[in-house]
Design a protein that fits this description.
The longest helix has 51 residues, at 2-52. The radius of gyration is 25 Å and the shape is elongated. The protein has helices at residues 2-52, 56-63, 70-83, 92-121. With 125 residues, the chain is mainly α. Helix 1 (2-52) packs across helix 4 and helix 2 (56-63) packs across helix 4 (92-121).
């Protein structure tokens, strides 16, 4: 009886181990495919996030913008910067977050501009 129980446990562990290994391989392949799909722009955007210490989504939330429109970004930046000035009782911390958010969004706009220029110079057939 103990022998059969041990065999069942060993077979169960083998099945789970193979399933885990297969799932790990599939996840790795999916991750590699996503990285290739992001391409160069994803790397540049990730580098910008690393340098500024702020993700694109966080910067958009801080400045309350949904699209990367330079006019909307500038308008919201100026408003939030003035509201958070120390002389009017604002928070220097929040003001610095607003500045960093604008820097991050400006960097993203530059990345998109560079990509548009590259795609116009090298049209794919």
């Amino acid at each position: 009886m103990a022998k059969y129980l041990a065999q069942i446990v060993v077979m169960g562990v083998q099945v789970v181990g193979r399933a885990f290994a297969r799932a790990l391989q599939q996840e790795y392949a999916a991750s590699q495919a996503a990285a290739r799909a992001r391409g160069r722009s994803g790397q540049q955007s990730a580098a910008a996030s690393s340098i500024t210490g702020m993700s694109l989504q966080e910067a958009q939330q801080i400045l309350n913008v949904s699209t990367l429109s330079p006019e909307e970004i500038q308008k919201n930046y100026e408003h939030l910067f003035k509201v958070n000035e120390k002389s009017v009782g604002g928070s220097f911390y929040l003001q610095s977050k607003v500045v960093r958010a604008k820097e991050r969004l400006d960097e993203e706009l530059n990345i998109q501009k560079q990509e548009n220029q590259k795609s116009q110079q090298n049209p794919e057939t």
